[in-house]
Design goal:
mainly alpha; Rossmann fold; Tyrosyl-Transfer RNA Synthetase; 3-stranded parallel sheet; 14 helices; 54% helix; globular; binds tryptophanyl-5'AMP
Length: 336
């Protein structure tokens, strides 16, 4: 059975960028494939501590897992939910892979460059983040790792480290699919990057200060609708998907497609030839409001106990699989 795996950090309430770009696509794929694939959904809580955590990390972690259930994740024996820090093999494989990765390739990681820019000092965790992420993926022989576009470089790193390791020691790791195949598997035309509503050249991010630039999953739906209505567009006066010249309008089309679970091409075709941005905004605002209303109503029905119940079996499974893989790696290095 193939493995599909993903994680989302629990530093704060996610934006609809996280939700539409990564969480909801994962829920849809999980429901489609979990009959004959393993589906691993975990919270990388060790990745959370590279930066400030808003609130209590333990509670945030449980809440984050509830989002998947509220988003419609169907549970069966192939769906495994766990917390990274409860599976110590992740940290140990990270150390071992640190001895496989090179300073040169790690220094090229754009997330590290972005996150360290302008800081006087930067913790080593920020630099090493993609190696721990590689360990998260390789321990479970994951083929597909649904993620937003900002994380594609890390998938390439995971592929490179797995290939290098296998070359030296034999076929121990499954090499994850190429990013182009990941995108195809997600049923998309390209990687998803939901943009900042006020400054659509940038990705929507929880760390951006301006409230109107981002929609949080717990925003009141009416407030979210207003944010869409005040989104930056352009002066070209045609509704067209062109991320380069019309990032604001393109972002609205992308949100509309994901919020309604319809192919982007269909949304583009529906709006082709339209000139009134106000109409587009009205439509997207109502889609986002409906999405949030439904999501928030579902969220109220999911209890912490449901998540703890799933974690018990999920963490037992994860430790078994991860320890078996780690043992093979330890043997390869003559540690066992
Ligand atoms: P995190 O928490 O920073 O992001 C979680 C997911 O949300 C996606 N994302 C977006 N997608 C579209 N548009 C946006 N504006 C946007 N902002 C965020 C991210 O691409 C990501 O998919 N490093 C991972 C966590 C992780 C992980 C792993 C994931 C750690 N180990 C192993 C998969 C497999 C991350 O970025 O989390």
């Amino acid at each position: 059975m193939k493995t599909i795996l993903t994680g989302v950090r629990a530093n704060s309430v996610p934006t609809i960028g996280n939700y539409l770009g990564a969480m909801l696509p994962m829920v849809r794929l999980a429901n489609q494939y979990s009959k004959d694939s393993h589906v691993n959904i975990f919270v990388p809580d060790l990745h959370s501590i590279i930066s400030e955590v808003d609130g209590d990390l333990k509670a945030n972690t449980i809440r984050t897992l509830k989002y998947y259930l509220a988003g419609g994740l169907e549970i069966n024996e192939n769906v495994h939910i766990y917390r990274q820090s409860r599976v110590p093999a992740h940290s140990e494989l990270c150390w071992i892979l640190n001895c496989v990765a090179t300073m040169g390739e790690m220094s090229r990681m754009t997330q590290y460059k972005d996150k360290s820019e302008g800081r006087e000092s930067c913790n080593v965790g920020i630099f090493d983040y993609p190696v721990l992420m590689t360990a998260d993926i390789l321990l479970y022989d994951a083929t597909y790792v649904p993620l937003g576009e900002d994380q594609f470089q890390h998938i390439e790193l995971a592929r490179n480290l797995a290939t290098r390791f296998n070359h030296r020691f034999g076929e121990i790791f499954t090499v994850p699919a190429k990013t182009a195949d990941q995108v195809k598997f997600m049923g998309m035309d390209g990687g998803i990057r939901i943009r900042d509503l006020l400054n659509p050249e940038k990705k929507m991010s929880k760390s951006t200060k301006a409230e109107n630039s981002k929609i949080m999953l717990d925003d009141e739906p009416a407030k979210a609708g207003k944010k869409i209505m005040s989104a930056t567009t352009d002066s070209l006066g045609k509704v067209k998907f062109d991320m380069f010249n019309q990032p604001g309008v393109s972002n609205l089309l992308q949100i509309e497609a994901l919020a309604n679970d319809v192919p982007l091409q269909d949304v583009i075709a529906t709006w082709a030839g339209e000139t009134r941005y106000g109409d587009l905004k009205q439509k997207v605002a109502s889609s986002v409001m409906r999405l949030l209303e439904e999501f928030q109503a579902q969220m109220a029905k999911v209890s912490d106990e449901m998540v703890y119940g799933l974690l018990e079996s999920g963490e037992k499974y994860a430790n078994e699989v991860a320890n078996a893989k780690l043992y093979e790696v330890q043997k390869a290095f003559n540690l066992r």
